[in-house]
Write a structure and sequence with these properties.
CATH class of the largest domain: Alpha Beta
Structural class: alpha/beta
Bound molecules: adenosine-5'-triphosphate, 6-O-phosphono-beta-D-fructofuranose
Mean pLDDT: 95
CATH architecture of the largest domain: 3-Layer(aba) Sandwich
Largest sheet: 7 strands, mixed
Number of strands: 11
Length: 336
Amino acid sequence: MTKRIAVLTSGGDAPGMNSAIRAITLSALRSGFQCFGFFHGYNGLINQEYTELSAVSVTDITQLGGTILKSARCPAMLEPAGVLQAANALRKLHIDVLIVIGGDGSFRGMQALAAHWQGQLIGIPGTIDNDLSGCDNTIGFSTAINTATSAIDKIRDTANAFERVFITEVMGRHNGHIAYHVGIATGAEAIISFENCTAENTSQVLAHLKNAIEQQHQHGSFLIILAENLWPGGAQALKTELNSNADINCALCVLGHIQRGGAPSVEDRMLATELGIAAVEVVNGSIKANTEVATPVMVGKIHGAIVITEVEKVLNMDKPVSQEWVQRYQHYLAEQ
Ligand SMILES: Nc1ncnc2c1ncn2[C@@H]1O[C@H](COP(=O)(O)OP(=O)(O)OP(=O)(O)O)[C@@H](O)[C@H]1O
Ligand SMILES: O=P(O)(O)OC[C@H]1O[C@](O)(CO)[C@@H](O)[C@@H]1O
C-alpha cells in the first residue's frame, strides 16, 4: 500500500518553511507516496483541516516567506484531550508518517503524539530563534539575521547623522543567537542578551553601559542590541533608565516581526530543501541514523552532513551561543 505522508508547520513561522514543504512533497511523490498538508499547525490536525499536496500545489513557493500551510500556536495540544484528538485524526486519515516543521514546542507536540499514535514522526527544525540542538542552524535563522542586520545598518546611518545612542531590540525568545549574530555583524557597541545579563546583574550592566557610552560616544553613534524578553520592563524601561539615571538620551527601535518575514535567504532555501528531502529519505529508508533511534526523530545538518537525532535528545541538550563571542563582546560591559 502507498504510504501516506503528512506535513504541518507549527509555532512561529520561519522563512524557508515553504522550501521544506516543496521538497517533502516532490520527494514523497517521487518515492510513490501520497502527501498531505495540515493547515494552521496542530489545529489543522485536530480539526482535520488538510489538503492533498501535488507538484502543482508546491510550484512557485520556494521564494515566499511565511508558510503556505499557515502556522499557529495550538493550546489544545497542551491538554491530553487535544493530543488524543490529533492522534485519532491521524488514524482516521490513515496517515503513516507525520513531518512537523517547527521549534522545540512543536517537537514536544510530536512527543505527546508518540504516546498515542504508532506512526512515524519526523521533525524538521524551523524557527528563527536557532535554539534547537542537533543542527548547526534552524530554517529561518539565516534570513532573520540578514533582515535584522540590514535594518540595523540603516539605523546606524541615522544614528551616525545624529550622533545618537540607539537601542534596537531583536527577537530570540530566550536566547541570544540572533542578538549576538546581528550585534557582531553590525559592529554594535554593546550587546545585552541572556548570555551576559541576568535579573541579578541588571544594575551592574546599566552602570557598565553608562561608562561605555560616556567613553565611546564622543563623535559618533553608539548601538545597543538588546535581546527581547530580557530587560525588566522591556526596551522602553532601559531607555528610560539610561535617561533618568545617567542623562543619556537614546532612540529605540523594536524590530519585532519584520525579522520573521520576507523572502528566505539562499542559505535557508538550501537548508530547508535538503532537510525536506532527508526527511523523506528517512521514510523510504535511503538514509538511516548511525545508531538505533526511537521515534520521534529530527533531521538536522551539522558540519555539512545530515544527522538524525532523537527528539528526546534534541530537547534535552542546550545549544548555547558561542562563549568565545560572549567573552569577546563582554569587554564593552566590563569595569572601565
Ligand atoms: N508540551 C507540549 N505538549 C504538546 N504540544 C505542545 C507542547 N508544547 C508545545 N506544543 C505545541 O506546539 C505548538 C508550538 O509550540 P511553540 O509555541 O512553543 O512554538 P515552537 O514550536 O517552539 O516554535 P518557535 O520557537 O518558532 O516559536 C504549541 O502551540 C502547541 O500546540
Ligand atoms: O509571533 P508571536 O506568537 O508573538 O511569537 C513571537 C516569538 O516567536 C519567535 O519569533 C519565534 O519563536 C520568537 O523569536 C518570538 O519571541
